[in-house]
Specification:
This protein has 321 residues and is mainly α. The protein contains 14 helices and 2 strands. It is globular.
């Protein structure tokens, strides 16, 4: 310590100590950057990849074993050799039983129609928010986000009260004289569409708003000066420039809507078949974990395809620009 104190008091070697401190500072910053980069991958590994591989392992287990412990994936023979035991009977069962194919098709149909309805509702709303004044813009964005402050389950139960035979909508229609007796709105495809669109339309509005906020509105004025009508301006200027927002919003609506369980279960009852309900029945009612795991893996693959297509289109657009 004496030479160090003497060097600091005299000012000798001060530059070298400063260089050491700078190097230590850079090292600490590099470690923090490494932690910040590794942490999301660790989170993904812990909460997505690990459960995924567990479900994948159960999906290729012995189909006759309905509950844990399942047949092992790796087996050791007497001579010390390791064998991998993979059984695809659970996936073949999904193909053979028409229930699963029809349910997948029904889920895709409902999610596609719901996504289109969210787009038809969300696109003009997002455009109106972008064109509004700063004060009105903040209020409108707050109104879009405000439903998230309430429990999702509570909002679904509220729609059950609105759509019931003695609910507010039927009572209002009878009072206005449009109908004489209650119309069956609950436990129908209509109720499921209403619930999904109401729940997921903010996920369409917000990406569209983020995309439209970056648009150069002077292009609309230039198109009008060149004699373009509003419809022509929308089709040739606005719509092509908002495709990234449309694609992002559509994926945010389509993916969760396909695997939705609570909305078709409460609003659709047993009249609307979606894959989330079948998955629940296989796990909890039939206690057939291998088949349920195969249903989950097939659903995941089904949802990964549109994401891969979107990333491919986005990559081509990036290369082109």
């Amino acid at each position: 310590m004496a030479p160090l104190t003497k060097a600091l008091d005299s000012g000798e070697g001060l530059g070298s100590y400063q260089q050491i401190l700078v190097r230590v500072q850079h090292l600490l910053q590099a470690k923090w950057k490494t932690v910040l980069v590794v942490l999301p991958f660790f989170w993904l590994l812990l909460f997505f990849l690990a459960p995924f591989f567990i479900i994948l392992k159960i999906s290729v287990a012995e189909p006759l074993i309905a509950s844990p412990p399942f047949s092992p994936l790796f087996e050791w023979t007497k001579d010390g050799a390791m064998t991998i035991r993979i059984i695809f009977d659970n996936y073949a069962y999904l193909w053979e039983d028409e229930l699963y194919a029809n349910t997948y098709i029904s889920s895709l149909k409902i999610s596609v129609i719901s996504t289109l309805l969210c787009l038809l509702i969300g696109y003009p709303m997002a455009y109106a928010i972008v064109r509004a004044s700063p004060t009105a813009k903040n209020i409108l964005l707050l109104m879009v986000i405000l439903p998230f402050w309430t429990s999702f389950l509570l909002r679904v139960y509220a729609w059950m009260g609105l759509l019931a035979d003695q609910g507010l909508i039927n009572d209002l229609l009878i009072w206005l004289g449009f109908i004489d007796s209650p119309v069956r709105l609950m436990y129908s495809h209509f109720a499921v569409y209403v619930g999904i669109v109401y729940t997921y339309v903010p996920f369409m509005i917000l990406p569209l708003y983020a995309n439209m906020e970056k648009l150069d509105l002077t292009l609309h004025e230039a198109a009008a000066d060149l004699g373009a009508k509003p419809a022509t301006t929308f089709l040739t200027v606005t719509l092509p420039m908002t495709w990234p927002g449309i694609a992002a919003g559509s994926l945010l609506v389509f993916i969760p809507a396909t695997g939705e369980f609570i909305i078709p279960d409460l609003l659709g009852g047993g009249n609307v078949s979606m894959i989330g309900r079948v998955l629940f029945n296989e796990f909890h009612a039939n206690h057939d974990w291998p088949v349920a795991s195969a249903v989950a893996i097939a659903l995941l693959i089904l949802l990964v395809v549109p994401m891969m297509l979107y990333q491919r289109v986005q990559a081509k657009e990036t290369e082109g620009s």
